[in-house]
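Margin note from the TA: students keep mixing up input and output lines. Inputs are the sequences; the output is the structure of the whole complex. Example:
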Amino acid sequence: EDQVTQSPEALRLQEGESSSLNCSYTVSGLRGLFWYRQDPGKGPEFLFTLYSAGEEKEKERLKATLTKKESFLHITAPKPEDSATYLCAVQSSGGATNKLIFGTGTLLAVQP
Amino acid sequence: GAGVSQSPSNKVTEKGKDVELRCDPISGHTALYWYRQSLGQGLEFLIYFQGNSAPDKSGLPSDRFSAERTGGSVSTLTIQRTQQEDSAVYLCASSPGPNNEQFFGPGTRLTVL
């Protein structure tokens, strides 16, 4: 069964304190791995798509990496406005549907 | 351009009543998805529309749930005889094609009393 596990469930950082969020996955053929940011009361906001092991993508203070078993979202020198829930999802090439399978997210709080 | 819009933003209903939730996807996007997000749980896939193909209904939790997409654009998710366990945020997403990133709307928060 396709599955996504994110850790930690919650993370509290001081402003400027870099860290990484983990997304472990098992899937019958990876079509793509997606990172989203979700603010309270809003829908998920697309950040990155990764397609193959070794791929990396960056956007401002965020950098996403991918291996055959997991993905990391690295946050460099975070600011309070980076506080949000970060969601990881995979799309499997093993089924007929193109649905995303989501993890339960990491709640990030960045304190000034 | 305009993103995905959903209405209403909040819906409170009584157990046993029917509700309709609406989604307006990004113009030109051929794929449309419905997900459900319950407190403390990840997003759960419900249904997927792609162009004129038959929808993938494999995620619908019961026959009380149905959805349609008219003219390849607007979609309506209908829940009949609502139950308290249906309380959740219902999210709609659209994408340019089946293998592209999905863009989400703000969601409809459904509360069943």
